[in-house]
Amino acid sequence: MRFNILQLLKNLRSHSQGKEMTDADILKWANKKVKSTGRASHMDSFKDKSLSSGIFILELLSAVEPRVVNWNLVTKGESDDEKKLNATYIISVARKLGCSIFLLPEDVMEVNQR
């Protein structure tokens, strides 16, 4: 999945002063986007185990389009069942935003890099 995102971002080079986008650029953008909403969560890498709860990803999706996430449907993401609910919801919200989806709920739960 990250490869596909990087390929897409390479096509958007005009917004990055002509340089290729890297994982570090994506991390910086995602953390800045979430922080701009007043939320304190962040991710350190694409291997960050805290991503398994789905909370950061939902906060990022909400930062992109504030009305897209129904927070009443979001769990704390502490148990495997809660993580699965959040991961499934992430995919639903991302599709609603028109995102290309290259992962399954289990990939979010297990923090699989794609």
Automatic annotation (TrEMBL):
Signal peptide: none annotated. Residues 20-114 form the Calponin-homology (CH) domain. One of its GO terms (biological process) is actin filament bundle assembly. The lineage of its organism: Eukaryota, Viridiplantae, Streptophyta, Embryophyta, Tracheophyta. Keywords: Actin-binding, Calcium, Metal-binding, Repeat. Interacts with F-actin. The keyword 4Fe-4S does not apply. This is Calponin-homology (CH) domain-containing protein. One of its GO terms (cellular component) is actin filament. PROSITE patterns: CH.
